[in-house]
Write a structure and sequence with these properties.
six-stranded antiparallel sheet; Antithrombin, Chain I, domain 2; about 25% helix; 9 helices; six-stranded mixed sheet; alpha+beta
Length: about 400
């Protein structure tokens, strides 16, 4: 069997409506019972994630967590005003107060899921040398709605180790090194979110049915893959794709995969989607007998998303005109320098394990940086090859002129 490109999602219970064949599912916790606000926020999050997918390079694998990115950017929005806030609300959708309440309730809903391990965690790391002073209302909102851990730190090499250790712990070791190198000298603050998900299937694939089959990649190459087989019943039909949903244990979450129609490029299919269309498809599942063949997956994705977010209209926060006055009572020249996102997903016959982390880095353009030492070896110089432990030169020479080739 040759399997074409697939769009896959982890779909929360609030996006499903197949009650006919999901009668064993536990009820959604009261905080997330269907409401106009809940459904609208779900649509906003779906819109945002699809826009990011549409920005991805054609042909490459992409994996993002809308929950992780939205949580980190929503925390950021609580510290912004003016044009910076307006652009964030336009991208994320809706008013920040509604989004705060939704993410607070959804994080509790996630953590309460039965028969699986899942949670979202947040932290704020700020430079503790007196150069900045955090707004008390921003700290209060971060703690109330995001349960954010507030961590003053020296912003040295140890800070990177501490943040990476925190992310690794919150993602069950799946993302051990979100950040690389010590914080830049003019960095002020890190907003961090981490999401983890570890769930067994309600009905596992039978490992004995797994076999190697070809996968037809987007560039036309044929690749070997380990394909699992099963009979499923939750069918999804769209104008340009069809797919299936498979329940995880506990009934609150499902895996969803969508297969674009033969001949339709994945980029064109994703470009045709918006949040409303996607949620309508997920809510319109019907009972059908389906025989599926699906590859085992081990996906990793890491990206610096500044350019993608700017292309989606989020510009002001990345400039020196950024308005972060509701976050910082000092450092008026603070701006966002980087948005780093990393995600992993491993899917097999027994279940799925996934994690994601997002780091938003704030810097100050006004912190004076020492000038770089410049060395231009454009005149005679001494060279050596040195034993690092003994500092013993084992080769040594002088270059007075460029050797003739």
């Amino acid at each position: 069997m040759i399997c074409k490109n697939i769009l896959l999602l982890l779909a929360p219970a609030l996006l499903q409506s197949c009650s006919d064949n999901q009668t064993s599912n536990p009820p959604t916790p009261p905080a997330l019972q269907a409401s106009a606000v809940t459904n609208l926020q779900a649509e906003h999050m779906a819109n945002f994630s699809l826009k990011l997918l549409q920005q991805a390079a054609a042909g490459e694998n992409v994996l993002i967590s809308p929950l992780s990115l939205s949580s980190a950017l929503a925390m950021l929005a609580n510290g912004t005003e003016g044009e910076s806030l307006a652009e964030l609300e336009e991208l994320l959708g809706g008013h920040r107060d509604q989004r705060n309440t939704f993410i607070k309730h959804y994080s509790a809903h996630l953590a309460s899921a039965r028969e699986l391990k899942a949670h979202s965690a947040n932290s704020i790391w700020y430079r503790d040398d007196g150069s900045i002073r955090m707004n008390a209302r921003f700290v209060s909102a971060s703690e109330e709605f995001y349960k954010a851990e507030i961590k003053p730190t020296a912003f040295d090499a140890q800070t990177t180790e501490d943040i990476n250790s925190w992310v690794s712990k919150k993602t069950d070791g799946q993302i051990p090194s979100l950040l690389a190198g010590p914080p830049p000298p003019n960095s002020l603050l890190y907003l961090i979110n981490a999401v983890s998900f570890d769930a067994p299937w309600d009905t596992p694939f039978e490992e004995v049915l797994t076999k190697e089959s070809p996968f037809s990649a987007a560039d036309g190459t044929i690749q070997p893959a380990q394909f699992m087989s099963s009979s499923e019943s939750r069918y999804i039909k769209m104008e340009q794709a069809q797919g299936f949903a498979k329940s995880y244990a506990g009934g609150g979450y499902s895996f969803v995969a969508l297969l674009p129609n033969e001949g339709l490029a994945m980029a064109d299919f994703v470009s045709s989607l918006n949040g409303s269309k996607l949620l309508k498809a997920l809510r319109s599942q019907r009972h059908e007998d389906i025989s599926i063949s699906f590859p085992k997956l081990n996906l990793s994705y890491r990206a610096e998303l500044t350019h993608q977010l700017q292309a989606l209209g989020l510009v002001d926060i990345f400039t020196h005109q950024a308005n972060l006055s509701s976050m910082l009572e000092s450092a008026n020249d603070a701006y966002v320098s980087n948005v780093i996102h990393e995600a992993k997903l491993k899917l097999g016959s027994k279940g799925t394990k996934a994690a994601a982390a997002t780091a938003i880095i704030l810097r100050d353009k006004c912190i004076a940086l020492p000038p770089a030492i410049e060395l231009n070896f454009n005149r005679p110089f001494l060279l050596m090859i040195v034993d690092d432990e003994l500092k013993l030169p084992i080769f040594m020479g002088i270059v007075n002129e460029m050797p003739k080739s």
